[in-house]
Write a structure and sequence with these properties.
The complex is a heterodimer.
Chain A (H helix, E strand, L loop, with lengths): L2 H33 L3 H27 L4 H32 L18 E6 L11 H4 L1 H5 L2 E7 L2 E3 L12 E6 L1 H11 L2
Antiparallel strand pairs in A: 1-4, 2-3, 2-4
Helix pairs in contact in A: 1-2, 1-3, 2-3
Chain B lengths: L13 H24 L3 H28 L3 H32 L6 H10 L2 E6 L11 H4 L1 H5 L1 E8 L2 E4 L12 E6 L1 H11 L9
Antiparallel strand pairs in B: 1-4, 2-3, 2-4
The chains are: A alpha+beta, B alpha+beta.
Chain lengths: 192, 202
């Protein structure tokens, strides 16, 4: 494979990984919205669904733009189908969040995996002077410090699944769940 | 034409059906991606089997919900369960779509796998061979998370799936294990399961 194609391939795969990560994050967020009966989280899932639609279109265009040889085309077809599947997963997440947005009374069965009923969802925007800026999640130990659990990091249009080595940037919004008591300390850390 | 099994009503609690659908559909995503990315036909076929199971659960859940609704209030509350269950069914369908990429030999370009391995946790499937050091051990005795950074997410024993096995589940000869974890740990664990590595720690 030519160097140019190799580069293009890497770009396509990166887009796909973002599609995959976002769709899986959406499932987590959708179930969380259900368990916490949180309209905010449900709306986040709906917003992400639109974002994924755009991402998916860009991804498909990128694949179509590439002029690969016949033997490489089959591998790309597999990628296109993977993309379609992630889109389906994102749709399913949106369907789950719709239950919350329609105000359907949460049935006890849906709350089975809930951790604590009094938990809330919090949004904490990261200010420029926050001590969290430039640090990884592993370093800042937010659950230990605040009792809040990070569900996702919103960065501009994107939503990132939290991993230990995810770095926090100024302007990020941390989406977290936990007791309302922890909310205050998280907000203080995020924007002192 | 595929064979569609007739689903006969069985009295199973809604919560059991719902939880199994939710857990299976999420597990299937992991299994399906690894089948596609590592071009593992066997794993892909397992996903297609699980998809049938989720379909059956979906029918049973619908039947149970219909019987459970006594009035308008029940119906309103249960429609949420039904909607979420159908979403879980969609997720399992998406996982099956991914599996079909493998079973129909459409394939994913090897370079995709190469790049993907850098960013994704890995999954593995391995059969417990006679002579493996883990036979007869309970899951917690293996202490996998601490020793290897690995987590067994499913065990296939004969035709049954044990999803998210209990800590006290005993590993048997011939079990098929599916595990997730960091790449190095996964490789070590595979050797252990197949009896190519004799000790748990070395």
């Amino acid at each position: 494979m030519s160097e140019e194609n190799q580069k293009r391939f890497e770009e396509i795969v990166e887009r796909f990984v973002e599609l995959k990560d976002t769709s899986e994050l959406m499932i987590d967020l959708a179930y969380s919205s259900l368990l916490l009966n949180s309209r905010e989280l449900a709306e986040e899932v709906q917003r992400l669904e639109e974002y994924v639609d755009g991402l998916h279109t860009d991804f498909e265009l990128l694949v179509l733009e590439s002029a690969f040889k016949k033997e490489e085309a089959k591998g790309l077809l597999g990628l296109i189908r993977l993309g379609v599947a992630t889109e389906k997963i994102a749709d399913a997440a949106a369907q789950i969040s719709e239950v919350v947005l329609r105000g359907i009374e949460p049935h006890p069965v849906l709350k089975l995996t809930i951790r604590e009923a009094e938990e809330t969802v919090a949004y904490a925007p990261i200010a420029n002077d926050s001590p969290l800026v430039g640090k990884t999640l592993k370093e800042v130990r937010i659950p230990e410090e605040t009792g809040m659990w990070i569900l996702a990091i919103r960065r501009r249009d994107k939503c990132i699944r939290p991993k230990p080595d995810s770095k926090i940037e100024a302007g990020d919004i941390l989406i977290a769940s936990g007791y309302s008591g922890g909310l205050e300390s998280l907000r203080k850390l995020a924007s002192p | 034409m595929p064979h569609f099994e007739k689903v006969k009503y069985k009295p199973v609690p809604v919560r059991d059906l719902f939880l199994e659908m939710k857990n299976l559909s999420e597990l299937m995503i992991d299994l399906a991606y690894s089948a596609a990315l590592f071009n593992d036909r066997e794993l892909a076929e397992d996903v297609l089997e699980l998809e049938k199971r989720v379909d059956t659960l979906g029918y049973l859940l619908e039947m149970t919900i219909m019987i459970a609704a006594r009035d308008a209030h029940d119906a309103e509350a249960l429609t949420g369960v039904s909607t979420v269950a159908s979403a879980a069914d969609k997720i399992s369908d998406a996982a099956a779509d991914i599996a079909v990429i493998v079973t129909r030999n459409i394939g994913v370009h090897p370079i995709v796998t190469e790049i993907f391995e850098k960013v994704e946790e890995r999954l593995m499937q391995a059969k417990v061979n006679t002579g493996s050091a883990i036979i007869g051990k309970q899951v917690h005795e293996l202490n996998l998370a601490a020793n290897m950074g690995v987590d067994i997410i499913a065990i296939r024993r004969d035709k049954d799936w044990i999803i998210d096995p209990k800590e006290t589940e005993q590993i048997r000869d011939g079990d098929v294990l599916i595990a997730r974890g960091v790449q190095v740990g996964i490789e070590e664990f595979k050797e252990l399961v197949e009896g190519r590595r004799l000790k748990l720690e070395d």
